[in-house]
Amino acid sequence: MATLRIGRSLQRLPRLSCQHRPTLAVRSCIPAATYLHHRPRHITTTRPNGLVQTIDAFPSQLENAPPDLLNRPAPAPTTPQTLTEKIVQRYSQGLAEGKFVKAGDYVTLSPQHCMTHDNSWPVATKFMAIGASKIHDRKQIVMTLDHDVQNKSGKNLKKYSQIENFAKTQGVDFYPAGRGIGHQIMVEEGYAWPGTMAVASDSHSNMYGGVGCLGTPVVRTDAASIWATGRTWWQIPPIAKVTFTGALPEGVTGKDVIVALCGLFNNDEVLNHAIEFTGTSETMRSLPVDDRLAIANMTTEWGALSGLFPIDDMLKGWLRYKATEASMYKQPSPTASLTSDRFNHRRLDDLFASPLTADKGAAYAKELYLDLSTLTPHVSGPNSVKVATPLFDLEEQNIPINKAYLVSCTNSRRSDIAAAAKVFKDAANGGNVPKIADGVNFFIAAASLPEQQAAEEQGDWQTLLDAGAQPLPSGCGPCIGLGTGLLEPGEVGISASNRNFKGRMGSTEAKAYLSSPEVVAASALHGKIAGPGWYKKPEGWEGVVKGEGGYASFSIEDVLDKLVNDAEAAVKEAEQRLENSSGMKPTAEKMAGEDAAQESSTSGSLTEILPGFPEKVTGEIVWCNADNVNTDAIYPGKYTYDDAFSSDPAKMATVTMENYDKQFSSIAKEGDILVSGFNFGCGSSREQAATAILAKGIPLVVSGSFGNIFSRNSINNALMGVEVPKLISRLREAFPAEGAAAIGQAGKETITEPDQNAQSLDSPPPAPESKPDPAEKALTLRTGWTFTWDVRRSQVVIKEGESGDTWTQKVGELPPNVQDIIARGGLEKWVQKEISSG
Predict the structure, then answer these.
(1) Can you give the three-state secondary structure of 183-197, one letter per residue?
(2) Average pLDDT in the 767-785 region?
(3) What is the pTM of this model?
(4) Strands 546-548 and 511-514: what pairing?
(5) What is the radius of gyration, based on Cα positions, of the chain?
(6) What is the pLDDT of residues 778-832, one digit of tens each?
(7) Average pLDDT of 93-115?
(8) Which EC class, in a word (predicted)?
């Protein structure tokens, strides 16, 4: 096995001569035939001269997930679908005949796999509390222990034992503490499979997108629902397309790509979006699977809900290697099934026979592009992923460091360890491995035990130990602020992990930077932020080429498709504006006639409404003009852990939105529609933020966008929500907030919530709340506008006051299966009913 691993890891790319194009500077040359696993990050100091060419009662539900989802022929879509939509189509249940899912739709989801980690026992407790006793599909569930593996206290060991015994009793695959980080296990063991959908009760499940698997996070209630029924719900997010051009230069890595993306596009461009990465075959060939995993992993920090790469030749080669390795070296586990049950060539043959791809002409909510050939090594921070600086700028500042970290599921695979070791081997110049700088602590932990073993066999692990690195067990550790080596007050640390929010890796008075493994290693060696010198800035380099929208990154065929789509969208927008500006107010008779005509002409696309569920939800708009209204503003932390208070709806109603506006409870009335700005409900994961709004008698919240966890907690607790960005713009035009200069702009300082909030470490701290100055404007306004959500037609109707305009907008479908969850009073009650009726 050592021979196979070493040969694969050290295999070099053959150099091909490529013709120059009279565009940007020098780019790496990518061969037509590639290696299986990863591209060596550095081969020589001489760079090749070639250029690459470039979104209650009660429908029947399917009792079980289809046994052969991957082999089920998918009907041809009548409209183009993105890769994300195609995968969701496969894993959605109870769809109407001929229904093709699209962004904004709510679906009943039965994912291929669901992973839980140290939170498995809290999920199990919730699972048992709702009356479940047996996991619906044991092959669907994976349990790992990875977060607090260094904690040997009796309390933690008891929890770990409870999880292991529960997994054994239920017969699910289980990976004990020290075996690896859950996300790495999902990938290397083949649970995250290309063209499938896998979820986890952890925010970094986005990482599965690196191998073409749609990975996205779920909350604990969702996980318990999947355990009990095999299903939960999901609203397909808006989908963003990120096109890569060019090819990565030597000395630049996938970590540099995502660090740069987070810093260069740092105005929430992809917040709560699903991302699809794309590019020409030549460009994508410069991104090995390990680099893709790092990029997909940190799309979480970028604000996205998934980060999906295509199923291409690079991935296929890696998959073939994994299948060969699994067949040659079968290592039975007493607690999990064989790797070869998932990684095998027969399964790959089926996958490659008809791999999923996005349809030409598929609609994306946003399009960005990045020219990889212009990218340089970047460093994130301090204490924010929204700040990314070219390495050479930081090197000039001579920033001393105290701690360096090669840890986490982002960048601690064998290729990352090899890259770090090479820094020290190069510095040895044939002699003894040099030691890390005095006063620096360098901590290393592999992403999984197999990755560590491979690094040991290659000699790279020992090289780092010889240099003075301190090994830690495979697990999350310092990345989430647990265990040995945390940052102390006043210290500076640089890490190859994924998150550097203030206090994440230790003291809030420390500074944390993020970079690639080789920059971490070089910084440890030199005692300051430094690189290994492998990247040479091209002559005439003028910065990173990137942008939003436009045609710069498209092929001729893509340009033609986009021109047609843009023209159609422009025509529709012009027609809508003409209709709204005509000043003609439709009579009730005319509106009724139009409704009848629309129902007749679009009956096939109308949403079924369950008996007892309202076809329309309507009310007066109560306007809270603010962005980033966090969960503490909605339901203050001082009440969250007062069980007597929080179990009394009448009391909760008196403090709803108290930290935003103490006058809210006296202004808002039962039946109103609460409308607020963008990123509503960000921050901690408290469910009371949703239940308090319901306690106030408000059935529906409308925003420009929702925080993901709040969005999930809303449906799980039977609060309806819908995103209508256009409404936010119109309200801001009609009711300007003179004291809100920062409206719509993310600030730089983080909000400090009360200590008892227990803000999840898996949730980025919210941006500062931007709202009007109370001295200038009332914070809560009764607008006199009426908002109606027509559930049957999947559209909203806004009447702007008695004499104002009336306009409509399409929104995502709320299908019967999600209506059922809301009608039953939330997901837990829905699960209880499913169990009792099953």
Answers:
(1) HHHHHHCCCCCCCCE
(2) 74
(3) 0.81
(4) unpaired
(5) 27
(6) 899 999 999 999 999 999 999 999 999 999 999 988 989 889 999 999 999 999 9
(7) 93
(8) lyase
Token pair for 99: 């229904």
For 328, the enclosing helix (H) or strand (E) is: helix 313-328
Q: Where are the alpha helices (DSSP H) in 635-685?
A: 637-640, 643-646, 649-655, 664-667
Closest CA to 520 of 501, 496, 484: 496
Q: Directed axis angle between helix 816-823 and helix 827-837, to 10°? A: 100
Residue type, 210: G
**To the nearest 5 percent, what fractions of the chain are helix, strand and coil?**
35, 15, 50
What length is written for the chain? Answer: 838
Q: How many CB atoms lie within 10 A of CB 593?
A: 12
Distance CA 621, CA 700 (A): 10
Q: How far apart are CA 232 and CA 108, in angstroms?
A: 6
Residues 6+ apart with CB under 8 A from 169: none
- Whether 640 has a pLDDT exceeding 90, the answer reads no
For residue 411, the number of C-alpha atoms closer than 13 Å in the C-beta half-sphere is: 30
Neighbour-count burial of 378, counting CB atoms closer than 10 A to its CB (0-12 exposed, 13-18 middle, 19+ buried) = buried
In this structure, the number of other CB atoms found within 10 A of the CB of residue 784 comes to: 12
What would the DSSP string read from start to end of 449-490? HHHHHHHHHTTHHHHHHHTT-EE--SSSGGGGT-SS-PBPTT
Q: How far is CA 36 from the centre of its chain?
A: 27
pLDDT of residue 769: 63
Q: Is the pLDDT of residue 627 over 70?
A: yes
**In this structure, what token pair is assigned to residue 796?**
């909203």
For the segment 94-106, the average pLDDT, to the nearest whole number, is 90
Q: What distances in angstroms separate CA 60 from CA 64, 136, 138, 233, 838, one per listed residue?
A: 12, 17, 23, 15, 11
DSSP result, 36-74: SS---S-S-SSPP--------------SS--TTGGGSPP
pLDDT tens string 20-43? 333 333 333 333 333 334 444 443
Q: Rounded to whole angstroms, how far apart are CA atoms 222 and 716?
A: 8
Question: Any alpha helices (H) in 696-745, and if so which ranges?
Answer: 708-716, 725-734
Burial of 705 (0-12, 13-18, 19+ CB in 10 A): buried
| Residue 502 · residue 515 · CB < 8 Å | no
Please, are residues 637 and 796 in contact by the beta-carbon 8 Å criterion? Answer: no
| pLDDT band at residue 522 under the 50/70/90 scheme | very high
CA–CA separation, 330 and 576 (whole Å): 62
Inter-residue contact 206 to 196 (CB < 8 Å): no
**Is the per-residue pLDDT at 50 higher than 70?**
no
Burial class (CB in 10 A: 0-12, 13-18, 19+), 836: exposed
Q: Which residues pair with 623 in a beta bridge?
A: 675, 781
Peptide bond between residue 382 and the one before it cis (omega within 30 degrees of 0): yes
> Over the stretch 587-618, which tens digit does the pLDDT of each residue have?
444 444 444 444 444 444 789 999 889 999 99
The SS3 of residue 654 is: helix
